[in-house]
Amino acid sequence: SLCLSSRVFSNPYASLNLLLSPLFGSVPTVPPGNVQAEAVNSTTVRYTWSAPSPQFINGINQGYKLLAWELSRSNEVTVVMVQPNFQDSVHVGYISGLKRFTEYYTSVLCFTTPGDGPRSPPQRLRTHEDTPGAVGHLSFTDILDTSLKVSWKEPQEKNGILTGYRISWEEFNRTNTRVTHYLPNLTQEYKVTGLTALTTYTIQVAAMTSKGQGQLSASTISSGVPPELPGPPTNLAISNIDPRSVNLQFKPGYDGKTSISRWLVEAQIGIIGENEEWLMVQELPNEPDARSLEVLDLNPYTFYRFRMRQVNIVGTSPPSQPSRKIQTLQAPPDISPANVTLRTASETSLWLRWVPLPEWEYNGNPDFVGYRIQYFKAGSKGGVLSHVIMDRLEREFTIEDLEEWTEYEVRVQAVNGIGSGPWSQAVHGRTRESVPSSGPTNVSAFATTSSSILVRWGEVQEADRNGLILGYKVVFKEKDSDTAPLFWTVEGNNSHSVQLTGLGKYVLYEIQVLAFTRIGDGRSSSPPILERTLDDVPGPPVGILFPEVRTTSVRLIWQPPAQPNGIILAYQITYRRNSSNSNAATVDVLSPSARQYTASALKPEMVYIFRLTAQTRKGWGEAAEALVVTTEKRARPQPTSRPVVPQEDVQARRVLLSWEPGSDGLSPVRYYTVQYRELPDSNWTVHSASVSHETNSYIVDRLKPFTSYQFRVKATNDIGDSEYSVESEAITTLQDTPDKAPTILSVTPHTTTSVLVRWQPPSEDHLNGVLLGFRVRYRELHYDHLRSFSVRTVNSPSANWADFTSPYSIRNLTESSLTQYELDNLNKHKRYEIRLSVYNAVGEGPSSVPQEVFVGEAVPTAPPQNVVVQSSTATQLDVTWDPPPLDAQNGDIQGYKIYFWEFQLQNETERLRTLFLPELGVKLKNLTGYTTYMISVAAFNAAGDGPRSLPTRGRTQQAAPTAPSYIHFSELTTTSVNVSWGEPKQANGIIEGYRLVYEPCTPVDGVSKIVTVDVKGSSPLWMKIKDLADGVTYNFRIRAKTLTYGPEVEANITTGPGEGAPGPPGEPFISRYGSALTLHWTSGDQGRAPITRYVIEARPSDEGLWDILIKDIPKEVTSYTLNLEMLREGVTYDFRVIAVNDYGYGSPSAPSPSISAQKVSPFYEEWWFLVVIALVGLIFILLLLENQTLSVSNVLFFPNLFRSPPRPSPGSLHYSDEDVSTKYNDLMPAESSSLTEKPSEVSDSQGSDSEYEMDQSRQKTHSFVNHYISDPTYYNSWRRQQKGVSRPPAYGYSQPEPLIISSYSSQS
């Protein structure tokens, strides 16, 4: 475990170091020098050392760590952090709180933001000697009236070399009787003599070193009375509950005839159940008379339950009864988030990460735990900003809206509903370099010649530089021109002026200046500066045509010069015959507004040459010449020849087009027009409509590389245009270097020494050829020279970016289809710049905008291994796993995320449990019983989350089900009801059955009967109850069972007809004919709705229960005939009729007169009839013997038309087969066809579940059960039947079976 001392020695120059030290870098490569360590007392060591050479620190010197560890415990290191001291050459620091008289190794290291440097060579020392601790195991033996023997053991904390022991004894509270002896260091027992019988003595023992006497161990004892084991304390009470302490009052238990040497307090912490582990939390020694004690070092906002023990010289008492459960008060967090790191996210944002507080450090309600982030510009006293994140599990935040290329100081603290915890140690980060957000100041322009302008500018304001200025660009174009602006680049930040040359004469220019950084061009200065170049002599007039030509005169027209180079003051026309001397020319000067001129007095059929020139204040300019023939026979020119492009004149973006002119039609060609089209589908486009008539070739530029074209030409004279020439052959321009870079989509850490670069290649239009591959350029960014460079920018104009960057390394990727690449073998804890370009056969295109990435941190690339899920309880699964493979961890694993969800319900039920410690197991609690869960685990480190493991399946154990979802009552009569219920919403296991309990809400006739029925199996979910009393409210309770019973659902129902139900029909009377009975009745009051049907109930007259015999009798019917075979022969029955409407069952009619089910035998079954038949038969036989053979055949057939009823609803008693009697024969079933029961597979002692089987000889079984009858024959009469014969039911609904009827109770 890492022990952090609370003392950190600082100095007032620490902030100066943060301003002058480099920002990023690696870990130091050498330890501090001249390290010395010496013990200054028994618990403190003094260190001295000198700082490493700055060139080996490799980053910001964040300070030093003083280390100390015991010889045998090298993994338990005490650490004290000391901030750097730049004032003194020798640094001093201390570690206190060490163990006394203990040997330690000591060392010192220097650390930077990325991590710790190497330790200095360990030095061995021992802390000073001190007084010892208390002796151990003080005990008394051989206790006599005048003597006893005292024994002890060496102190656990010797704190030096023991020189001996001191023992003293005195009568209790009489110090004047004290006797003292000093014993050698090897003696650990002493016989005390000369005691007075039955007297209480106080005996004290202490160890000694050269530093003096140690802590006393004391106990009281009565001479002649041996001590015993004490009893437990009683009457525990808790008061003064604070965040970290409570006051515990108690009543001491039996002391065992000696003084209590120590009180022990144990506690259950964070109590969930009753079986939590008891942990020792407090000891109070040498206070035998204590009646209360303060329990310290508790955790705030935590549940505790306490118990106590008391200790005497014999031993420890049993524990007391536990106290009540209490919760300590809330308190602000004690610690700050750990592992705080800050990384550059973008030009205006920083990425802050930390390890969240563990749950036991919240010190308050978890719902109000969060983190406060504070940030400000490094070195700035004001402008402190903060942001609060109210999510206790959050571990990162992106700080937005920062200034570009600015260093910030950031710290974070935990907060809860009570207050804030301590701030973390400040971390520093710089936003990424960007382009300047404004142009240079004080831009000016001055025209020096007719084709040059001198441009000057100042610095970009420091707040807007957003990086290191690498140079400037002058942006200029003609005012009000649609052409793209031109750029004049000035490399380096040393020059702040440039001469623009090659400009147009007497042209007004818009001029702006921008600065650029490594990232790109910034904003241009604003507003644009306007400056005009000086004037000059003009260019030649253009567009000379002769629209009118006669044999003796011509008229010509023109346009002003394309380059007037000033203000046109006049035009001058000179003309003569082409064959004459120039001295014979005619000269005429025209006004500047003239655009035409007519020359007369010419000779017919002659060729004249005209020269036209313009004048500015700088003089006459270049002349334009044109020939004309004084004839009236002019015509349009003929097309030129097919233009050709020699292959040697084909370039990437231009070709040389040549042709032969056709006939000019006696009118000289004034100009040519050149058109082109891009193959295969483009239209013809004019490239130039002013190609000089004096040339037969033309350079067609502004073409696309590696593209096929065709060209054509037409000539124009004074009469008009020729036809276009025949198209040239298809010409393909050459390849050129690509003119666009790939777009880098992302650069993300992949491992601790590699990054994954993803990009999008440029479009085909910008490849300018066949793409052959990509080129990756990368280099480390050495920020350790950053601040000195910024200073030299002002004082030394020669500074540039190359002064503090390493040259690029290059990787050539020859696969043109790539869109990502892992750039590996990089150095850890370095920031890299990465650029990407494409190349073809001609060369390489421009590089992309640089992307920066910090190498050394990457998310795990593999999931945790061997995930195992074990079922612990009905609500808990235990999950274990192994960490990802070491080569895939990419840094220290900080914790794990456990995702779990119910099988096939991931979207609806997925939950997350986060472990912020690299533990390899977790207990998932509060789950649903008997539910299959899928569990997936992911590891995370400082860089982020790794991939999840494949889901692993686990199922919780069975638990008690929830309550049945509902209770529903139907077919309610005065004495019966059909009860149905719904399955539990959460079964939490396999439903084994249900328990139904019902009882009257008030006693009936002074007796309260509680009936319990256990129904085995998960279905059916209903039961018919028939033993109710009329007009009584009953309470029904049902609960389901898996391994155990779950909670109940209950409802009340009152028997008897409901409001609106029909009244009783008239009393039925019975007519009998042979083996059939017919019931007759009259209709009663129909109630609030028409009668829908009738029901006939029957019961044995000897106090049997009413039960439905015939269920669905049409409403129009007032009589019903049933066969006696439905009834048990010899049993007397009562019948009654009930009307039914939409409001339910009505009141029953009065019972019919009792009638026996005894059959009347027909005459042919009487004995006398059989005797007569026998005699007659004998006479016939004798006659036949005498006369002839007489054959007589008589057949009688009596079909069996009725079949047995279904089994009845259950009784409330447990019946056994030993009680079966056949003396009760009741009802045979009525005929019906609406019920089919299932075959039985249940033992005879439990009853059959469904289909009934019977022997023909045992058909006559009754259908009714009296729940309270003492003789169970009624219940068993339908149970013992031969299997193999089934019969249709008498009812129109299925009936559930109680497989075990568990209890019957009555109360009066």
TrEMBL record:
Transmembrane spans: 1167-1185
- Coiled coil residues, start to end: none
State the SMART domains in the record: FN3
Domain Fibronectin type-III residue range list: 31-130, 134-228, 232-331, 336-434, 439-536, 540-634, 639-736, 741-858, 863-959, 963-1058, 1061-1159
Answer yes or no on keyword Amino-acid biosynthesis: no
Q: Which superkingdom does the taxonomy of this entry point to?
A: Eukaryota
Query: What UniProt keywords are attached to this protein's entry?
Result: Membrane, Repeat, Transmembrane, Transmembrane helix
> Where are stretches of biased composition, namely Polar residues?
1231-1249
Cite the residue spans of the region called Disordered: 1229-1259, 1279-1308
The record ties this protein, via Pfam families, to: fn3 (PF00041)
**Gene3D superfamilies, alphabetically?**
Immunoglobulins (2.60.40.10)
Q: What is this protein called?
A: Sidekick cell adhesion molecule 2a
Organism, by scientific name, is Xiphophorus couchianus
